[in-house]
Amino acid sequence: MADFFLQALGQVSSPSVLALIVIGVLFGIIGGSIPGFTVTMAILVVFPFTFAMDPVSGVSLMVGVFVGGYSGGIVSGVMLGIPGTPSSITTVYDGYPMAQRGEPGRALGIGVAASFIGTLISVAVLVFFGPLIASFSMNFRPWEITALIVFALTLVAGLSNGALLKGLLAAALGLLITTVGYDRNSNLRFDFGLPALGSGFEILPVMIGIFAFSQLMGNLEKLRDDQGEVKGVDTNVSIPYRRILKDMAGQKLNTLRSSLIGSLVGALPGTGGTVANFISYDQAKKFSRQPETFGTGTPSGIVASEASNSAVAGGAFVPTLALGIPGDLPMAIMMGVLILHGITPGPLMFEQNPVLVGAIYASLLIGAVIMVLCQLLLVRWFAKISLIPQEVLVPVVLMLCAIGSYALNNNLFDIWVLFVFGVIGYLLWKAEVPLTPLILGVVLGNNLERQLFRALELNDSWLTFLTRPLSALFLALALASVIFSLYQDRKIQRNRQQAQRSDAGAD
């Protein structure tokens, strides 16, 4: 392990790759600083630029965006009271009140320090547990992999906040999209007489359309409501370094606990920084000796939020690299980068591409250091960037998305694909259908079909999925996930009905 890591470190430490990491971190921070832009959007915009790069350079650039994006959300959260990304929502609870009482530099400094430590701890989790899970999964055959993908999709759909049926339908729609084009036996499916559909849909235009287009259209809808909210913001920020060191010295246990929560939650398919954010904030409040100070500007709240959402980075790589199952939406895009370069994530990746795995480790570490330096040195500029109006931002990002989709194959059809799926994604968003299960269905669909057919070619009996212990376990977990989600949905509906009755009684 030491040999391939040193070899990877040598490649990542080259001036060109280091420059790409710096660019990625800066772009990620900028993207995270702009309310409504999100980490995923930043990754989607940068994705097309990796086409002409070698695997190490492309992955290093994306890792830089990943690390910078998760830390960038703190800027608008502290300065404006508006979370730059969904994974920094709880940062606002204490960061904004601290800034309001005249300590924005302290709030930003605590958040950056917690993000740095959270990233380091998550890298340690990835280094130790990634190879172990990959080694264990070497025993997986097509039956186990098929059942694991089914479990991942049901788990994601089950985390759709009271919309299980919509989540399952979204996942099914994602799988359906991957069936367009030729199958394993060279039979043409769902081409509708269009020759361009013979090779199916490219993942990049579909993902950009479904997620980025719909998100940007939603941002435009909110413009009228948000007008005038950001006036009079003081961006003249200075970082009190000694005070921050003192604050962090008293947050050792909180930082460690929140980082481990973030790493663990990041390793679960379909969860990501938002879920980790709320869980770690809740746990920090429960373990605190002064829970009443949370929400008033306490360092504990900022540490819990920022350490956890940054720790998601390393944790989310564990299932992506070891099993080929993306931990969250940004990881699904990262998986697309690897596939684009002819590398299939999964247990064999640690044997066939150890240098690339080591490059991911090294990029995360170097990216974390660059993130701290950039945030502390350029925080005033990032605070100004957070004030960019949406009416300027949205057209620019849409243009970049269209250029990136066209650059994939120099094919105008891909821009039409982006537009069509953008409209579909926007309509689904309006109908409150979760988009994450759909995206993961698109990413995992081809692998699911390939493994399912391979299993049936080896043994045409469906009972084999139940007679093999691991595949039966994953299918049982998938069923349990659906049942538990149904229970949660009914509980949510019951609570809503009770609240409505209480409101009616009060009237």
List the main descriptive attributes of the protein structure presented here.
507 residues, mainly alpha, two-stranded antiparallel ribbon, 2 strands, 75% helix, globular, transmembrane helix, membrane, DUF112_TM
Give a short summary of the structure.
By secondary structure, the chain is mainly α. The chain has a two-stranded antiparallel ribbon.
How would you sum up this structure, described in words?
There is one protein chain. This protein is mainly alpha-helical and 507 residues long. The chain has one domain. Strand 1 and strand 2 form a beta hairpin. Helix 5 packs antiparallel against helix 6, helix 5 runs antiparallel to helix 14 and helix 7 packs antiparallel against helix 20. It is globular. Keywords: Membrane, Transmembrane, Transmembrane helix. InterPro entries: DUF112_TM. This is Tat pathway signal protein.
